[in-house]
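haha ok so turns out i had the wrong file open the whole time. this is the CORRECT one, sorry everyone. sequence first:
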Amino acid sequence: MIPVSLIEEATQWRRQFHAWPELGYYEHQTSRQVAEQLRAFGLQVHTGLAGTGVVGTLENGPGPVIGFRADMDALPITELGDAAWRSAQPGVMHACGHDGHTAMLLAAAKHLSATRNFSGTLHFVFQPAEENLGGARKMVEDGLFTLFPMDAIYGLHNWPGLPVGHLAVNSGAMMASLDAFEIILRGKSCHAAMPENGADPIVAAAQLILALQTIPARRLSPLASAVVSITQINGGEAINVIPENVVLRGTLRCLQSDVRVNVRKMIDEFVTTFTSPMGIEGTIQYLTDYPVTRNHQAEAQNVRDCALSLLPPERVHWEINPSMASEDFACMLEVCPGAYFWLGADGATPSAPLHNARYDFNDALIGEGIAIWTRLAEKLLPLR
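then structure:
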């Protein structure tokens, strides 16, 4: 049973984190607070992985070594909510719930350190820069699993659209891959009244954007999952001048690795060949790439079994539809067995969507999160 006093304390931490959000790789205050709390709970603390990452280690006799991960970074969004703990940082807010993830894992570390109803080692991994910046990959590159070898690692995310008190996990894909890209179309500038004297990258961009939509619609099987979205268009300075260049940015999301490889190849072909007859040179650069967040079957089953020991069967969702959103925890799952799962965020009033300026983490699920982390630790690391 999770003490009410601990849930209340974790709620206060969550609201403090929410009021002072920090962008990826700049989570200095958050990182300091996390490290100080973990030391106060009696954990060994390692800082500096991926710059602001923190790992707290709790050893309690012989046994397996398990990792639990939470993300700490916020988003470059101006908050529109009116909570007393709304963001005090202009243009930055916790619009994805990482404040709640951090608070729940901190509270679980405190509880497990006090109760020690397990045998083995727990690593509490607090990761920076999940939002499109590859903090998980950077932690891996900086030696996360070399310095802290683990038998498995687990991560969670609050999930609007699923009621509080519900959990969802799959034995395979949970979330899509992410490829963020920048396309540059280089033409020839000229007077807008005399387009025959130039090569118009604006018209080429318009046609290319529509052509890219034929990839998921006409080049892939209807059973394949892929989304190609252009989200930014930049070009031109004067209304009577055809510009030299246009820059397009966007994302590709896929649920199957082979589909991802094929779609990237098709996008590259469109960019470099489709606009050539218009006198436009196209180049593409990939800015961010996360693999599919694909659970390992045994570890996913561990999460399901743990959830069924806490929740009624109708609240445990197994093999649900994956999300086409992405998650860089996938980079940890590439090198270490593990699983990623969702905790419901909808109360009596449905939660605002993730990445929405009116989103706020639902504190009603803090107790649920602490309980899940605690039960998972105790089931995977039974007392000897």
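The two ends are 21 Å apart (CA to CA).
again sry for the mixup
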